[in-house]
Design the sequence.
């Protein structure tokens, strides 16, 4: 197993290492980044004041806007000539968030990703086909470097050209596929169209991440492809993919806590929440050189489980990410995440996997859900009756009133990367 010792560190060992690393990291940030120095000085906090892990609660939060405000080079803590790589997040919501890496940072990231593969059950004998996007997006290179570090063969197919993707899977006998869960769903359809039976393929494990997906979707992918579908979490600010991954128990994603100190906070008050409570996940990176991040607010909402896993690992687990605080829709006074709607829809046999939530008017009460009918049911059932059934289930489970529009299979645009589940056509004020 890759970095077996790190994977199976005991809780006490992790905590001791965390304190040692965090004290060093806080000093590095304070000494080299004006943003941190200003934030600390404003409240009269000195790096030496952090004497225990509990003291970390005194450190001010860092948010995405702090990074954007320091565009283009972000909050660099090293001279520019020591930076070996830049990545940037998609930036669909404004100025892109640029992230930078020193040689050591790239090395740490590669190790973390290799550890993720290993934890998920991948071995050096495997053949990894990487269908994440290469480029500024951290997915492609992150999965690529990790596979190389583990010692597997890696085929950098990247996104797109699904026919070639399938051909490679078949001819090269790829045993691991890396892509977003939405692309995995699309691949399943494409295999059908190409007349390829998944049993002709050698795929055993899927490394799926970069967007929220439900347990129902997992079951569907596992059954359709005959594989183990493993969830993996990360974000560009925290190197990229590789922060947390599922072990074969598939009961939460282990956060590599010798590199990331994790807290859960109340989104509104910023208070640290007791273990087991759902809140916003906050990370402190423990050895990032180029761009140290202290108490970085991810906006991702989840529950952290601190109990030792049945796999023997003590690294805390993120129980599936339910969504982001800024994804939450408020419909007629009900708070709802797209992932909750997805959970209901995938549970209805007659429906396909593709859906979109369309927000039409400024009146949020008017929620419109478009969902495809499963191909084997199309033309064979009463659409009105089915729409009624879907609407009743949403109403019963989420107390949500929605207009349901059933679509012919294949009508909703497929994506190679992250799915776009919410289409907001409301007038911007
Ligand atoms: P962007 O999408 O802005 O370009 P990233 O690719 O860094 O930036 O996206 C990171 C975000 O993707 C996370 O904060 C989280 O919301 C989402 N994400 C990543 N992996 C997962 C996962 N396994 N489950 C749910 N959400 C995920
Ligand atoms: Zn485990």
Sequence:
């Amino acid at each position: 197993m890759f970095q077996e010792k790190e994977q199976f560190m005991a809780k006490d060992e992790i905590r001791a290492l965390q304190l040692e690393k965090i004290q060093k990291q806080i000093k590095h940030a304070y000494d080299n980044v004006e943003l941190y120095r200003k934030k600390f000085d404003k409240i009269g906090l000195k790096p030496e004041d952090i004497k225990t892990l509990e003291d970390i609660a005194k450190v001010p939060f860092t948010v995405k806007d702090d990074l954007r405000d320091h565009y283009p080079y972000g909050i660099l803590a090293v001279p520019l000539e020591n930076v070996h790589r830049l990545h940037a997040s998609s930036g669909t919501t404004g100025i892109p968030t640029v992230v930078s890496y020193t040689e050591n940072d790239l090395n740490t990231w590669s190790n973390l990703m290799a550890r993720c593969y290993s934890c998920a059950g991948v071995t050096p004998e495997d053949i990894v086909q990487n269908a994440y996007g290469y480029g500024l997006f951290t997915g492609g290179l992150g999965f690529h470097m990790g596979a190389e570090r583990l010692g597997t063969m890696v085929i950098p197919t990247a996104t797109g050209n699904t026919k070639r993707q399938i051909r490679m899977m078949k001819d090269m006998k790829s045993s691991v596929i890396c892509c977003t869960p939405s692309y995995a769903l699309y691949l399943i359809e494409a295999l059908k169209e190409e007349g390829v039976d998944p049993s002709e393929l050698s795929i055993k494990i899927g490394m799926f991440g970069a967007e929220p997906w439900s347990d129902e979707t997992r079951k569907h992918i596992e059954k359709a492809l005959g594989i183990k579908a493993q969830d993996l979490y990360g974000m560009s600010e925290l190197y990229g993919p590789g922060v947390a991954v599922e072990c074969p128990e598939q009961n939460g994603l282990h956060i590599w806590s010798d590199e990331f100190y994790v807290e859960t906070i109340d989104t509104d008050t910023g208070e640290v929440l007791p273990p087991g409570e759902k809140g916003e996940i906050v990370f402190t990176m423990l050895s990032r050189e180029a761009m140290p991040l202290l108490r970085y607010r991810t906006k991702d909402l989840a529950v952290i489980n601190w109990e030792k896993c049945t796999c023997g690992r003590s690294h805390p687990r993120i129980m599936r990410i339910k969504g982001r605080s800024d994804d939450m829709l408020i419909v007629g006074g009900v708070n709802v995440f797209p992932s909750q709607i997805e959970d209901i829809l995938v549970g209805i046999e007659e429906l396909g996997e593709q859906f979109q939530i369309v927000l039409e008017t400024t009146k949020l009460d008017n929620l419109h859900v478009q969902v495809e009918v499963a191909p084997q049911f199309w033309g064979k059932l009463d659409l009105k009756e089915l729409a009624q059934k879907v609407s009743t289930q949403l109403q019963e489970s989420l107390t949500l009133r929605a207009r349901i529009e059933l679509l012919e299979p294949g009508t909703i645009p497929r994506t190679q990367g992250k799915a776009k589940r919410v289409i907001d056509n409301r007038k911007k004020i």
